[in-house]
Amino acid sequence: AEKDKNLRLRSQRLWLAIGNQDHHFHMQQKLLAALDNLSLEQMIAYIRETFSADRPRYELTSVPKANKSTKTMLSSQSL
Question: Is residue 46 part of a domain?
Fold first, then answer.
């Protein structure tokens, strides 16, 4: 397992383990063991299912504003 790069990442990992009831902090070892046990066929099946063309998905698009120079000021009354 990769060493934590800083204290923030270490504390984040440890608090996540506590939140997951992993009081012995074995989450990384369990994850590595699970990844080691994955077969190539399982990975291919996962990728095919995840990126299937007929899998339901949301598509987010954006439309450019007509006039970018106009800025709208927000105030507490407009919210």
Answer: yes
| Domain around 19 | 7-50
Say what the pTM is.
0.49
Rounded CA separation 12/34 (Å): 22
Residue 57: how many CA atoms within 13 Å on its side-chain side? 10
22 within a domain of the structure (yes/no): yes
Distance (Å, rounded) from C-alpha 14 to C-alpha 9? 9
Q: How many domains does the chain have?
A: 1
pLDDT tens per residue across span 30-76: 999 999 999 999 999 999 999 998 988 888 888 887 766 666 666 55
Closest CA to 15 of 29, 2, 25, 30: 25
Residue 69 lies in a domain: no
